[in-house]
Target: Periplasmic binding protein
Amino acid sequence: MIDVKKISFFLFFLCILSIQTLTPHAEADAKEGYKRIVSLSPSITESLYALDYFDRVVGVTDYDTYPPEVSFINSVGGSVDPSLEKILYLKPDLVIGERNFHHDLLEHIESFGIDTLELTLHHRLDDVKEAFFEIAKKVGRTDRAEEVWKDIERGLTDKRRHTTNNLQKEASMLVVVWHDPLIVAGGWSYIGDIMKAIGIKNAAESKEYSFPAISREELLSYDPDVIFLVRSKIGMSTTVEDFIKTIEGLPIKAKEGGVVSLEAEVLLHPGPRVLESADILLKALKLGLREGELK
Model:
């Protein structure tokens, strides 16, 4: 005759054994985290790289240029209009995008049972920091994020000290990202926040937008000491010739050798490469000022 009590106890014991056996594997899987990530923005890709999670990235956009290894990763299309078909083909377990551009797409991707993360990036430096830590939390790299951001804060403090000690007089700089219409880094932008953090006066600080369009009259009223034209490797860039045509007839100080054009793609990718951005801004200021005003 079958002993029901013994069988019940045996089944219970098997359940306990199964839990004890499977739990370590489950924890190991959790530590491994996501294995196939699609990034829908260069800023997100660069964040994953800073978090030592780049080896999990299987898809990026046409506009990704950093790190150099990104050229070997499949592209899913543009940053604004990535292809759903290309994303699904890569079989991701996580897709990270920007709220302003990818909200509807991410919702659609979720309907396929794929995890997503939606971020706000293109505003203030605090937004960049918040997004960086959101990514870190999602992939289990919060400790690494803390290390990276502490280095950023220390670096900004050091660069401000250098600017304060070496700038002979207060000088303003206008950062231009396009010439027609004239679009600049405003006072409510991560570029403006970095400038403020390192002691550079943003000529367009009073514009409470990220990237406002300004008139010729506003440019004349700002009369910056230096005008920095941001060039990018991919996409459209403003040339010095085009910009000079835009400001033709305006008696502004920067026309006398203060217009600087540098490749500065990092300024267009708001992410953890903050100190590189700061260095480029300082380089532009130094090139634009007359010799001796910034050592």
Q: What stands out?
A: Residues 1-31 have pLDDT under 50 and may be disordered.
